[in-house]
Amino acid sequence: MSKVTPFLMFNHQLEAAIEFYTSTFPDSRVTNVARDGRDGPINSAEFVIGGQSFMGYNGGSYFTFSEGFSLFVECEDQEEVDEYWNKLVAAGATKMQCGWITDQFGLSWQIVPKRFMELIGDKNPAKVKAVMDAMMKMVKLDVAALDKAYDEA
What we know:
Layout: E1 7-10, H1 14-24, E2 29-35, E3 42-49, E4 52-58, E5 70-75, H2 78-90, E6 94-95, E7 100-102, E8 108-113, H3 114-120, H4 125-136, H5 143-152
Parallel strand pairs: 1-4, 5-8
Antiparallel strand pairs: 2-3, 3-4, 6-7, 7-8
Helix pairs in contact: 4-5
């Protein structure tokens, strides 16, 4: 485990969340769990999602997630964007603007193609603005439309 690990407080949904996350993202697994009693529900866990270590706890309804914290998923291409987006939506996620999506547990995700990061790293501010303007009109990010905005700027 690294020195700094995100710690997520769930509202009695930890077990369902880690089952969903570890089945959705490669390089994911549960590394440790603690249960309430011998056969009780998981109350805390250590797990890995996409190679990133996390700790989680069933904190109850007092704790909620907000868009102030999100998980950034860098996708190789449009196919990978579509794959994660569709898995999250099929499980009950709420679509948001600009490649953001909030899963059924209330956690926000940014599903972002690697190409977007390349385009906004351009030294030409007019091209970067065109890409940003295009992205701001999108829900799920569209690599072809981002490339088109870049090329036409």
